[in-house]
Amino acid sequence: MLRLLFPNLYVPSIYDIDLEYLRRQGIRGIIFDLDNTIVERGQLTWPQKLVTWMEGLKEAGFKVSIVSNNRRRAVGEMAKAYGIPAVFWAVKPRRKPFLKAMKLMGVSRRETAVVGDQILTDVVGGNRLGLFTILINPLPGKEFIGTTLFSRQLERLLLPRIRKRHGFSRRLGHDRR
Ligand SMILES: [Mg+2]
């Protein structure tokens, strides 16, 4: 159970993800969390830096998708407007939304990475399926109340251990199971 809480990689932000490293791990598809991972929670337009980076991912040959627990229709439509398949109201860490996203991208479990800012939803959800999990520091957006009360407390306890294992390293991910 405990190992479900630990990501394969821990980096400061999505922009610190080493794509060549992922490629060498056999990753072909990347599932992103939305709120406070790629945009601040509630933000409906994407900064140019994000748009450019997502385009770069696609040009580098990666498939991308978004899996979010957010229920707001506007948020789902926003992702689609940027041309990225998205699964909303996902109830992570349930397996189903991740499997749905993998199907949309046409990739297998061994080829899929999950990127998110929360251990209990993003990391645990990805680890349950044996996906390559990447934890990032949350963007400073306003949080869902349930997140602040429980998840962030747990993360405060776990982060020192995760940091000890990874530092903020782009390359020192532990090997996949
Ligand atoms: Mg999030």
Topology:
Layout: E1 9-11, H1 19-24, E2 29-32, H2 48-59, E3 63-67, H3 73-81, E4 86-87, H4 96-105, E5 112-116, H5 119-128, E6 132-136, H6 145-166
Parallel strand pairs: 1-6, 2-3, 2-5, 3-4, 5-6
The structure holds magnesium ion.
Biggest sheet overview:
6 strands, parallel
In the CATH hierarchy, what is the class? Answer: Alpha Beta
Show unreliable segments.
170-177
How many DSSP helices?
6
Within the CATH hierarchy, at the fold level, what is the topology?
Answer: Rossmann fold
Describe the global form. globular
Question: How many extended strands?
Answer: 6
What is the share of helical residues?
Answer: 25-40%
Give the full name of the CATH homologous superfamily.
HAD superfamily/HAD-like
Q: Which structural class best describes the helix and strand composition?
A: alpha/beta
Oligomer state equals single chain
Give the ordered list of helices and strands: EHEHEHEHEHEH
Count of all domains: 1
How far the N terminus sits from the C terminus, by CA atoms, comes to: 14 Å
Question: Within the largest sheet, what's the order of strands?
Answer: 1-6-5-2-3-4
The overall pLDDT average reads: 88
| Fraction of residues in β-strands | 5-15%
Question: Architecture, CATH level 2?
Answer: 3-Layer(aba) Sandwich
